[in-house]
Specification:
Layout: H1 6-45, H2 50-61, H3 65-80, H4 87-107, H5 112-133, H6 136-159
Helix pairs in contact: 3-4, 4-5
Amino acid sequence: MEFLHPTLNHFNYHCISIENSNSNNMKTLILTACMAFSAGAFAQSTEQPAPAQQQAKTQKRNLTPEDKAIRALRMVISQAGISDVQTPAVKQILLDRENAKASVRKANKGDKEKIQAEIANINSKADEKLQATLTPEQWKRWVSFKAEHEKKKAAKRAEAGKDATGSEEDYY
């Protein structure tokens, strides 16, 4: 845009350059603020999640046998799709299993190998009772879920550098 008077033309040039410099200053300010904010967010996100995971494990270990049985029942309901008629029988099987596992842990405190062996035996007996209670299709879905769950657990253990073998305790 050209003005008739040369001084006005010069004035127009300076106004545009002032607007551009203000715009650049504003862009710089916003960019600096964004960088500072993202640096703070990054610093917060690098905190160790391990304490939260450890707390979750501790809470899981501190559940009562009844709580563990209810938790397992929810898994069987969601994964195998049991009916309302089957629910009380499955709940009793799982409650008996969790009570037996708790008594084994209490009686053999400190002997990890013996606990694992007895818990594996308890789990297999509970599985036999579950298989008798569930339909063949439900049993197939449940076994498939357990196998997939074990693969995920083995992968987590391998990722953490632990031995990939473990007890069958956390299927449910």
